[in-house]
Write a structure and sequence with these properties.
With 140 residues, the chain is mainly α. It contains 5 helices and 5 strands, in the order βββααββααα. The protein has a domain of 96 residues: Orthogonal Bundle (Multidrug-efflux Transporter Regulator, Chain: A, Domain 2).
Length: 140
């Protein structure tokens, strides 16, 4: 389980409902919905029924926002700037640590998400699948 700044533990789950996130973070669901409108980086996915589905990174972000607003007394605008600075610093550190990869990993899709990925090379995929079929057909 991951530790947060306030020694809270995030359960080892892939997805969380808004009520679970509210209970974990000690905030109300309406506050979480307001933060979604204010912080662009906090965008939980929504299922077919419109219910919010938070990922672990969303829950960690909620903890960060709560700490900035309630413990460090930042304004909404100040918290946004602070989060952007932190994100830029992490990106710079990651950039310095490892070279750019030719094939970056693609985040797994939620079970109900439709593919929004563009530029998928279907021609290459068909060619690879035909090659696999050829290998299978030649097998004894």
């Amino acid at each position: 389980m991951a530790q947060t700044a306030r020694n809270q533990q995030i359960p080892d789950k892939l997805f969380f409902k808004i009520g679970e996130v509210a209970e974990l973070t000690g905030t109300k669901p309406h506050v979480l919905r307001y933060w979604e409108s204010e912080f662009r980086m906090l965008r939980p996915a929504k299922g077919d029924s419109g219910q919010r589905v938070y990922r672990r990174k969303d829950v960690e972000l909620v903890f960060s926002i709560k700490q900035l607003l309630y413990e460090e007394n930042f304004t909404i605008a100040g918290a946004k700037k602070q989060l952007q600075k932190q994100r830029a610093a992490r990106a710079e550190a990651n950039k310095a640590k490892k070279p750019v990869e030719a094939n970056p990993e693609i985040a797994p899709m939620l079970p109900f998400e439709k593919s929004k990925r563009e530029n998928i090379d279907l021609t290459w995929i068909r060619k690879e699948l035909r090659g696999i079929l050829g290998i299978i057909d030649r097998a004894p």
